[in-house]
Q: What sequence folds into this?
């Protein structure tokens, strides 16, 4: 009887003392290379868990369950289920990336796999839904740029002049209503 109690006690103790970890990995859509992420956090029940709590890019968690993942590097939010002692997910770094540049006023240069974009292009989220649609000339948006939320609803419609400067912008909430 004492031996059974000790086995159950130590099994229970080791189950509670095991640390749960989460790691986010990126796959570069252009090169196919794997890149570890250090700029993300998880949220559950109003509490944030971040990579700042560890040196190796993993996040220690108090318990298993469903968490909200904020992948800051690529601007995506996902729901993830933590159900193992070591958990990881892989997201894709978009082919189309934008970079802020300044001359006389802020402007954005868009690149696809490190080359300035020319022509009509569509960018995608990791889940395959459309991120943005626009026409580009030498990396600048010319005309209309449409951005979408991960749920597929329109997030913004922006109009750019022939020099690539923003002239008008209309933003929408996640339900598709115009934000005043």
A:
């Amino acid at each position: 009887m004492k031996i059974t109690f000790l086995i159950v006690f130590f099994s229970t103790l080791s189950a509670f003392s095991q640390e749960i970890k989460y790691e986010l990995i990126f796959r570069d859509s252009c090169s196919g290379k794997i890149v570890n992420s250090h700029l993300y956090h998880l949220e559950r029940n109003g509490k944030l868990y971040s990579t700042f709590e560890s040196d190796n890019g993993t996040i220690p968690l108090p318990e298993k369950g469903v968490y909200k993942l904020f992948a800051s590097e690529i601007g995506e939010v996902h729901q993830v289920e933590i159900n193992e002692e070591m958990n990881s997910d892989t997201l894709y770094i978009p082919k189309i990336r934008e970079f802020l540049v300044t001359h006389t006023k802020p402007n954005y240069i868009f690149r696809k796999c490190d080359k300035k974009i020319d022509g009509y292009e569509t960018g995608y989220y990791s889940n395959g839904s459309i991120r943005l649609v626009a026409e580009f000339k030498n990396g600048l948006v010319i005309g209309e740029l449409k951005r979408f939320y991960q749920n597929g609803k329109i997030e913004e419609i922006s109009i750019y002049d022939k020099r690539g400067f923003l002239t008008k912008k209309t933003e929408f909430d996640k339900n598709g209503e115009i934000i005043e």
Q: What stands out?
A: The chain has two domains: 19-93, 96-171. The radius of gyration is 22 Å. The chain is about 10% helix and 55% strand.
